[in-house]
């Protein structure tokens, strides 16, 4: 990582705390991210892609392509062993689609050959 660049978890915590992104908010150690499909009526790059664009700018991969911003953000998020999606709480379709994630306490998950083992899940 270039010096001064935050890793996704630290960067994401900062963004959630900032209140700068509509619909991005904490629910205890659980957080929600709007995840509206760009083909949906009413989708707006300035409202629905701001978090993804900010991550793209932060990583230096910010060519003007919201689909790529979202895919890169999703892949980075899914690669973290200490953040997991709560699929049963996510709403994948509709005009107010969102995904819900939980941040596990730091250093409580280990990745071994593609499988995540939770060591301590007191959240």
UniProtKB/TrEMBL annotation:
Instruction: Give GO terms: molecular function aspect only.
Output: DNA-binding transcription factor activity, RNA polymerase II-specific; RNA polymerase II cis-regulatory region sequence-specific DNA binding
Q: Which CDD domains match?
A: IRF
Q: Which residues form a coiled coil?
A: none
Q: Where is the IRF tryptophan pentad repeat domain?
A: 5-105
Matching entries from SUPFAM superfamilies are given as:
Winged helix' DNA-binding domain (SSF46785)
Q: Name one GO biological process term.
A: immune system process
Compartments where found? Nucleus
Q: Which UniProt keywords apply?
A: Activator, DNA-binding, Isopeptide bond, Nucleus, Transcription, Transcription regulation, Ubl conjugation
Q: Does the keyword Ubl conjugation apply?
A: yes
Which superkingdom?
Eukaryota
Q: Name one GO cellular component term.
A: nucleus
Among PANTHER family, the record links this protein to:
INTERFERON REGULATORY FACTOR
Q: What is this protein called?
A: Interferon regulatory factor 1a
Q: Specify the species.
A: Neogobius melanostomus (round goby)
Its taxonomic path starts at: Eukaryota, Metazoa, Chordata, Craniata, Vertebrata
């Amino acid at each position: 990582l270039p010096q001064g660049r935050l890793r996704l978890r630290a960067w994401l915590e900062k963004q959630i705390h900032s209140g700068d992104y509509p619909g991005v908010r904490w629910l205890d150690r659980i957080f929600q991210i709007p995840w509206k499909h760009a083909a949906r009526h009413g989708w707006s790059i300035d409202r629905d892609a701001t978090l993804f664009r900010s991550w793209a700018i932060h990583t230096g991969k910010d060519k003007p392509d919201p689909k790529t911003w979202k895919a890169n953000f999703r892949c980075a998020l899914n690669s973290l062993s200490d953040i997991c999606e709560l699929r049963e709480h996510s709403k994948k379709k509709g005009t107010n689609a969102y995904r819900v994630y939980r941040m596990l306490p730091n250093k409580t998950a280990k990745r071994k050959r593609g499988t995540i083992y939770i060591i301590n899940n007191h959240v």
